[in-house]
Amino acid sequence: MSMLRRSPSPNRYEELVERRQRRSRRMPQEQRRGTPLLLKCFSWLGGILLCFVLGYLGTNILMDSLNQKLLLKPENLVKNQEDLKAMEEAERSRSASPANGENIQQVGLLLYYVKGDTVVEEKRNFVARTKEDNITDALNAVFSLSNVPDMDSIRLLHVFRNAEMVFLDFSSGFVSALSSMGQRKSLLLLTGIVRTLQDNFSPITQVRFLINSQNPVAGGVVDLSVPWKMPSRS
Q1: How many C-alpha atoms does 201 have within 13 Å on its Cβ side?
Q2: Is the peptide bond before 203 cis (omega within 30 degrees of 0)?
Q3: Model confidence over 83-135: pLDDT tens digits?
Q4: Residue 207 pairs with which residues in a beta bridge?
Q5: Rounded to whole angstroms, how far apart are CA atoms 81 and 18?
Q6: What pTM does this model have?
Q7: C-alpha distances in angstroms, 81 versus 2, 43, 64?
Q8: Are 225 and 216 in contact (CB under 8 A)?
């Protein structure tokens, strides 16, 4: 005799259905909780690293393409420290030299300097600057052409002009140089200085010498305490 299986009561059936529904709702949450946090971190880092690598490679490819198309000039590319130094030197040279086609105004000056036992003249060109600066340029050239001893110790500190007179304020090395040259050559040198200024920088006719901004005392191989000028031309 076969046994008949007893059917669950309606209330029992509803409880089973509700229990299965709750179980099905919990499964996705449990599955999500089952993903390790460490694995998520590695996934994020991997994505960031991949984006960085792709960006770096893409930039290199783009720069190479620009170089090949001459959008970036090869002479402006710096690959090492030597290239950087060479570029800096070239830039300084371009800054120091005039631009192509640019004309620099020059002025020709007659220089009178000591040669042997006499004073000779020579014309030289200088960059046109203020009158005081050109006076300094001319006197430095006169000293060099006259082979004045210890030129490095001679400095023209200031130049002042007052109508026909110019004041030349020298360092004390000027007095030492005159002493080394002796009286005759010192007289020739002062003659060359006065004539250079008179012939090139009108209306100058007289020169007063100062030493370290002070009036020099009388004495020495030549007297610097008085004004110097060329004799009147008859």
Answers
A1: 30
A2: yes
A3: 666 666 666 655 555 554 457 899 999 999 999 999 999 999 999 999 999 99
A4: 166, 228
A5: 78
A6: 0.57
A7: 101, 40, 21
A8: yes
